[in-house]
């Protein structure tokens, strides 16, 4: 912050009030607080807190006078942690100085473009906590209505990759990623297990769910620890060849995790942000080779083959400018992958494939083998055209399962995923052949049931494209931890139209 604000503001004592706001720092002051009057602070003012060398930008709210003593300021959990978590600490509060990079955001909203310097300053301010969620929403929206071009996307990727820590390896590493938008597409644990069993090094860091009912980190957390620090990741990868960690526990492209939190609330994932999100994390993680899965379908994130090819071209072109060899695969995104949607349920599907169970979902197995084959070939573990055979061998002989279990043990131990407390079957109201499956409605059903916040929540599919269904046959089973969430999902299923469409 500007030096002229160093000693400005009034002094109050901190009080932890147990307010959970996801990641946005919130502070509460009395409505009759003389500091508010003297400093001209009103509800939703942006304020700057300083305590013991720490700075936090926060949003101010005012509460009932009896909530706080006259000399106290209430801190949300996010603000409390950022300030160091000390009760009754002296904190200086003042107006937040203007965030100059917001001028660039406003310019982009009104038709301008953002250069490297603009985006570097925006990302710097975002990581420093100077952007409120409202300002973050403005930036994300500015790149959605009129998408970022290649130069803006390259500059944003560079700024995001350079804003946090970097992993450097003494050996070549490879990575795999899906652009998302397809429920149940939990191929990553299988691919990592196969690649590591083949002798490749694949330090996989994954995000939690953005707009979906589960991300790889959410699913993996149902069986092992995923919030690993950099030293632990190094040890796991050096010992086992791979890891499956949550990237948010690290400072690899920290701006990405902030953007993801707001994108999740807006339920959008603009293409420029998507590319920068994926590539910045992979660049920061030290990957030099990358296999990308791009599901394509009418209700997937990417709607057409043409759009998929355009995204693949942009991804590979921008990755190459950072010295990363990217290989993109367009896959079938017309319906969910596997039989389940939700963290624990998806992990059950993964384990069924790794364990070679007779009822393991064949489509999840086949998709994972296709991606693993590409990883093995791009990583140099096998020659061109031999990847599928080698991947299948490592899966069928149990090598992939043993490596997956070893990775979990190295990360903190393995446990079986838990089953939800409540279940309810939703049946077909008529007869016919399954003509379409709406990925977005299926995802919403799983989220309304509680996923991913309740890891065992979600749904299990019983009908897929081409299946013949009679009236009263089960279409899917909802899983929830509370009756309220189960009823919420059932209400949506009854009012939102068919998530699974049958031919007449």
UniProtKB/TrEMBL annotation:
Keywords: Glycosyltransferase, Transferase. It is an enzyme of class 2 (transferase). Residues 433-500 form the Pyrimidine nucleoside phosphorylase C-terminal domain. It catalyses: thymidine + phosphate = 2-deoxy-alpha-D-ribose 1-phosphate + thymine. The keyword Glycosyltransferase applies. SMART domains: PYNP_C (SM00941). Its EC number is 2.4.2.4. PANTHER family: THYMIDINE PHOSPHORYLASE (PTHR10515). Belongs to the thymidine/pyrimidine-nucleoside phosphorylase family. Type 2 subfamily. This is Putative thymidine phosphorylase. The lineage of its organism: Bacteria, Pseudomonadati, Pseudomonadota, Alphaproteobacteria, Sphingomonadales.
């Amino acid at each position: 912050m500007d030096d002229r604000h160093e000693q400005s503001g009034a002094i109050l004592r901190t009080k932890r009030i147990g307010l959970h706001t996801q990641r946005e720092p919130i502070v509460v002051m009395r409505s009759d607080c003389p500091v508010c009057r003297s400093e001209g602070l009103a509800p939703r003012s942006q304020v700057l807190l300083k305590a013991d060398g720490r700075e936090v930008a926060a949003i101010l709210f005012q509460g009932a006078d009896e909530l706080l003593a006259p000399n106290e300021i209430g801190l949300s959990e996010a603000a409390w942690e950022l300030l160091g978590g000390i009760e009754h600490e002296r904190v200086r509060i003042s107006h937040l100085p203007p965030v100059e990079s917001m001028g660039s955001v406003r310019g982009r909203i009104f038709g301008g473009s953002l250069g490297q310097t603009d985006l570097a300053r925006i990302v710097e301010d975002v990581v420093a906590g100077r952007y409120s969620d409202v300002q973050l929403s403005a930036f994300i929206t500015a790149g959605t209505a009129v998408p970022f071009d290649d130069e803006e996307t390259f500059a944003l990727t560079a700024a995001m990759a350079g804003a946090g820590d970097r992993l450097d390896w003494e050996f070549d590493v490879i990575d795999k990623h899906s652009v998302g938008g397809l429920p149940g597409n939990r191929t990553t644990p299988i691919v990592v297990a196969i690649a590591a069993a083949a002798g490749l090094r694949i330090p996989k860091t994954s995000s939690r769910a953005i707009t979906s009912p589960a991300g790889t980190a959410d699913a993996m957390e149902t069986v092992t620890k995923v919030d690993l620090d950099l030293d632990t990741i190094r040890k796991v990868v050096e010992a086992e060849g791979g890891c499956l960690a949550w990237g948010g526990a690290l400072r690899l492209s920290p701006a990405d995790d902030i953007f993801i939190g707001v994108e999740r609330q807006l339920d959008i994932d603009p293409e420029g942000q998507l590319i920068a999100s994926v590539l910045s994390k992979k660049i920061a993680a030290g990957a030099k080779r990358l296999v990308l899965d791009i599901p394509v379908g009418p209700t997937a994130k990417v709607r057409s083959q043409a759009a998929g090819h355009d995204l693949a071209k942009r991804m590979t072109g921008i990755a190459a400018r950072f010295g990363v060899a990217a290989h993109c695969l367009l896959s079938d995104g017309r319906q969910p992958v596997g039989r389940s949607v939700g963290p624990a349920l998806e992990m059950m599907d993964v384990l069924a494939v790794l364990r070679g169970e007779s009822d393991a979902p064949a489509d999840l197995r086949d998709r994972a083998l296709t991606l693993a084959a590409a990883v093995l070939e791009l990583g140099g573990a096998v020659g061109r055209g031999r990847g599928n055979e080698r991947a299948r061998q490592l899966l069928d002989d149990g090598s992939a399962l043993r490596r997956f279990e070893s990775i979990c043990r190295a990360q903190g131990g393995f446990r079986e995923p838990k089953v939800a407390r409540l279940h309810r079957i939703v049946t077909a109201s008529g007869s016919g052949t399954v003509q379409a499956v709406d990925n977005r409605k299926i995802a919403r059903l799983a989220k309304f049931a509680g996923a991913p916040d309740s890891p065992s929540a979600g749904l299990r599919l019983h009908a897929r494209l081409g299946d013949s269904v009679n009236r009263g046959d089960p279409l899917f089973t909802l899983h929830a931890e509370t009756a309220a969430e189960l009823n919420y999902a059932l209400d949506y299923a009854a009012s939102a139209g068919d998530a699974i469409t049958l031919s007449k």
